[in-house]
Backbone:
């Protein structure tokens, strides 16, 4: 396999983009990444997206976006792995370039959720769960996560307010990210009075939907014309794993086996361990997922994830900085785009471009994107010279 | 890139499978391919599918099918490129194995269309066209192809009945394929009296929808334990290209530029030309597409595709055998599965397993899968020792 680097990144703000179509959002991110990379053409476009067929009545996003950004005739396809679609698209683009089949590729995650009314989007999101045995019984995604969180609190003795620091950290960091959906800080009082969505998950435990697109352009290092002054971010590890699609089929519903496996594989490829990771963009779709991700990726012992948050170790200056640009909670969670936002944000950290929430001296970063209730997890590790 | 071979294939019959779920169909094909390959585990599952999110209320097919076939924890994702999803999934699996990232992968195309009522599936299929400028104006896929066919007849002086031999050949071959949807032969009279769908496309110019799944298991040749008595089918070329998603944006709507480009790239990789191809499984979703595909892939001059059909050269004993197992017309067109059926059928031809419709001495075969109105085309060339 050829060594691959991220040469350019681009993103739109996560927001309700009533004035922009799906292709305009994706196009903005792709063209920004190409501009950042100083490249005017790429061999292929890999689009991570979950719901455009239902929410926007548009599929076939490979051809659709390639055409829109002036890449007519380039290769183009869509990758779907539920909320893990973004990182899955990046991984496929990565393997195509690493294999030698392509000399450049852009991976873009895009989702335009606000075209779909509230109740419909809840049903569309539920297509990431088992249609027969979960969604068909009326289990929405927040309900599935509420079951996990309740069990977790029972098993390990946590109280609801112990999860507050996850959301508070995310909102504190999002304030400084112009692409974040929310720029309002949150405190304990705000968390405590948030309305309950699905007990014990309240509104401040749940990430907001939104419209947005984020893109990264990758090239093999051997073909690289380095840009003066821009640190070179390389892909050091990439792995993916699935777990049962239905939670009730797992031996231990409180352990993200697919996160453990994909993280372990990525660590082995990169020759690092959790202790070497300077910044960790995890998939805090719900605060319980942040805790489980920290544990499965090796940053905390089983059942002990909230300790890192309560001790302040998840802040940009802590031991395991997470959600440094707001995370899913404050940057927002446009589902098929989220994995690409995480990758873009890790690259920003390794380039040292994060201002107020810059992790000091960040050299190694990891992004972990989750599809479904932990049923498809993609991990990437990046390094900078 | 590592050289890659198809070690196993599997397929279900294309039919109205009211008694089987999406995962049961996919599982049947995947397990048959693994059985054929004598392998009990694979590193990853790549699922080609277009419409499960709307037609079956189930997305996230990577995890969904990996779980079902007992591949828990394997990598799994879905690839969507409209009707080209099947071959796009195969190509992504191929690059992952060729890159060295994976040592085995199964690509499965699956679609269960009959869960969705007639009018709805027409709208779902139209999501492969431009939602704003084509589908939004009421243009269904058959209507788009009717516009192309009418123009083609006008430009090159063909009569409607000149297209009959495409459908007659497909049905004659489908009779002998147990996995084909239709086993009834068709003659000129039957073609002539077929009801008009969208003038000039009649019911016998159009491929039928259906439910089905087809799979291929690939491994690097260097890791191969050859099975005695089974010819080894290698992937000699793989390429993909897009064109504008909307037909009106093309300089020449009668020329499949993405087919020309992907075929040329695949020919160059394989070191062959159209004259070397012994069997060509093309995308005869409509008979006009068969003509255009023959031309763009270099088998006929511009506007002259129907000559090959009228001269009998597309039959299994002709110069360019197409639709040798029934093609989209008679085997059926379960959209996201179709590209994988084509690949499975080429492998069957190169193994010499096609009985009555076996192409004598077939050594080199090509599969060409089209997404949208020619807007995304994937070509694969296979060889056998």
Residues:
């Amino acid at each position: 396999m050829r060594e691959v680097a991220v040469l350019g990144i681009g993103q739109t703000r996560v927001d309700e983009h009533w004035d922009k179509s799906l292709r305009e959002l994706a196009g903005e991110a792709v063209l920004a990444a190409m501009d950042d990379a100083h490249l005017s053409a790429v061999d292929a476009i890999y689009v991570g997206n979950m719901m455009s067929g239902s929410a926007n009545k548009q599929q076939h996003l490979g051809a659709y976006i390639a055409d829109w950004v002036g890449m007519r005739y380039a290769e183009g396809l869509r990758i779907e792995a539920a909320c893990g679609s973004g990182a899955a698209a990046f991984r496929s683009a990565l393997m195509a370039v690493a294999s030698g089949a392509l000399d450049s590729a852009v991976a873009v995650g895009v989702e335009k959720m606000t075209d779909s009314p509230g109740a419909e989007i809840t049903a569309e999101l539920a297509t990431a769960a088992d249609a027969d045995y979960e969604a068909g019984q009326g289990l929405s995604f927040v309900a599935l996560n509420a079951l996990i969180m309740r069990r977790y609190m029972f098993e390990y003795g946590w109280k609801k307010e112990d999860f507050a620091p996850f959301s508070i950290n995310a909102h504190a960091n999002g304030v400084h990210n112009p692409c974040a959906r929310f720029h309002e800080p949150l405190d304990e009082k705000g968390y405590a009075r948030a309305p309950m969505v699905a007990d014990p998950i309240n509104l401040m435990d749940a990430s907001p939907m939104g419209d947005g697109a984020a893109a990264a352009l990758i090239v093999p290092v051997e073909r690289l014309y380095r840009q003066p002054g821009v640190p070179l971010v390389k892909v050091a590890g990439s792995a993916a794993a699935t777990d049962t699609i239905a939670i009730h089929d797992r031996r231990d519903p409180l352990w993200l086996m697919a996160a453990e496996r994909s993280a372990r594989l990525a660590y082995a490829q990169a020759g690092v361990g959790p202790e070497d990771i300077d910044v960790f963009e995890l998939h805090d779709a719900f605060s319980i997922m942040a805790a489980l991700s920290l544990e499965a990726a090796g940053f905390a012992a089983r059942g002990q994830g909230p300790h890192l948050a309560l001790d302040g170790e998840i802040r940009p200056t802590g031991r395991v900085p997470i959600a440094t640009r707001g995370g899913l909670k404050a940057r927002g969670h446009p589902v098929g785009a989220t994995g690409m936002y995480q990758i873009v944000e890790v690259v920003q950290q390794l380039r040292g471009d994060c201002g107020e929430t810059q992790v000091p001296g960040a050299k190694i970063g990891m992004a972990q994107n989750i599809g479904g209730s932990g049923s498809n997890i993609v991990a990437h590790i990046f390094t900078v010279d």
Notes: Residues 113 and 121 of chain B are 7 Å apart (CA to CA). Chain B touches chain A through 66 residues (CB under 8 Å). The mean pLDDT of chain B is 96.
